[in-house]
Amino acid sequence: MRNRFWILGSGLLYTLIIFARDWKAINRIGADTGYTYVPDAVNGNLSVLLKPFPEYFEISGRATAEIVALFPIRYHAIASSSVVNLIWVALALFILAMIYQETHNRVFASGAGLVLIVIPHAMESSLGNIGMIKFPLTAAIAIAFCSSRAIIKYPKLITVITLLAGLSQPILFVTVLPLVWLLRSNDHDLRRKVMTLLTVVFATLIIQVLKVGVGAAAKGRSGSRVMSLWPGMGLFWYSGIFFPILFCLLIIVVNSLSPFRNSKYNELRFMLCASTIALSTSSYILGGIADRYFVAPMTLAWICGLLLLHDFIIAFNKLKIYALAISLIFVVVPIAKWFEAGWFLTTGPTWTSEVERGIEICATQPASEIELFVSPDSSAIVECSQLVNN
Description:
Layout: H1 2-22, H2 37-43, H3 59-68, H4 76-103, H5 106-118, H6 134-145, H7 148-153, H8 155-166, H9 177-182, H10 188-212, H11 214-219, H12 234-255, H13 258-261, H14 266-287, H15 295-315, H16 320-337, H17 343-346, H18 351-364, E1 369-374, E2 378-383, H19 384-389
Antiparallel strand pairs: 1-2
């Protein structure tokens, strides 16, 4: 019963925070991915789940669009943001469950789940965005891959989410280094479940590569990726690019020092750091510099920091207050600065106002379709029949 209240309380806290972050953008649709998935869900059957966008499968976003399509068109933005927010909450609870299996500490596990909800770099284009679900999904499954206890306890759940992630995120395979490490275990049951996960990851990778094409998959987003730093890019971008890798390299060095070499979470930190570095590096190589690629590595890096803080306090108990104070400053300042949804998600007219405008135009000029604007500077083409009927 206590566990139920704990999970319910954590879920409620996560929900309040994620909606507070997304509140200014909740009635808007971000330009990337925009409104693309929802008309497909409205006009098609479930086969659109396997319709690539733009070139690879992204089932997580399309499955979410199927839920949004159940609502009247004037509420599609609110429904989309709300459903996406609740998916983030579910993934945060998933992270909570994974970390709890390793720590058996409710406060610590709740904090790990909270990291996903408050991660600062989600504010630019990820909050409430139906096209960005694959990134928190990647973070959640990467954390699960690091927990042998979670894999043993929740094998079916992790396998299903791995399948969903693999058919939504082509670079999921870079997170399997911890699974390869776990194959060294003497536990036959664990090795069997790890092999199942590895099979799912590489099967979905093959499916994605066959769809995209080997050449295109190797090049990544070669035509649109930004590879070079630009003048005045600011701390937000510098931290997103460099912090996860540099911080995890530091943790690897600290892990090798005598006070931490045999500490409680030494191996878990190593595995999380391996996934963080792999995700950051592969995202940059294949996609360039983009804020959406910061979400998963940052989440893993912050959780690594929590694990390090725990062991540091045990090793240096006299410095406990100082360690907590410094850590709190480093966490609270970026969260406060980059808490609310940014301009990319809040610029432009609200979706309901655009739908109202479209209905008025369709009433006097019954064209076959009309252009509705979405933030920050993009548009969606909607048929008048869809507007009038709703």
